[in-house]
Amino acid sequence: MKQLTYIFFLIFIFGCNNTKSVTVEKSQSISKENATPNIYNCQLIEKEFVNKGGKIAVFKELYLRCSVQDYFIKLCESNLTHEELEQYIGNGISVEVEIKDGMWDHCDENQAHVQSRMGPYAVIKSLK
Three-state SS for 31? Predict the structure, then answer.
């Protein structure tokens, strides 16, 4: 019986000796600190503002329709104003843009009017 125990022990030791190492690569993500502006060719569109209660407001907001996604344009961080962009609504434009992730409605210290909308948004640096 002892011999059988030794045999199982040896099989266990040699069986565990044949292990393979696996290399795991980390994916690189763009953080806010190292994000760089890129040139995008998109369509400038307007969408109706919908509040948290699902009610549609009177005003509309600007978005960049790029490929398969619409990016909210956070004007308070952008170098262009709503008035400067208005003339391009419905048209294709080429812009230097930085895509960020965060709060859309938070532009100043007063968070009373923040709608808690979060996600990817566009910051327009310049028209090209």
Answer: coil
Contact between 63 and 113 under an 8 Å Cβ cutoff? The reply is no
Q: What is the pLDDT of residue 14?
A: 57
Measured CA distances, 113 to 71, 82, 100, 105, 117 (Å): 21, 19, 21, 8, 11
Sequence-distant (6+) residues with CB within 8 A of 93 are 41, 42, 43, 44, 127
Model pLDDT for residues 3-62, shown as the tens digit of each residue: 656 565 556 565 555 544 433 333 333 334 445 568 989 999 999 887 767 777 788 999
Both tokens of 15, joined, read 């069986």
Beta-carbon count within 10 A of 114 CB: 14
Q: How many CB atoms lie within 10 A of CB 111?
A: 11
Distance, CA of 123 to CA of 81 (rounded, Å): 11
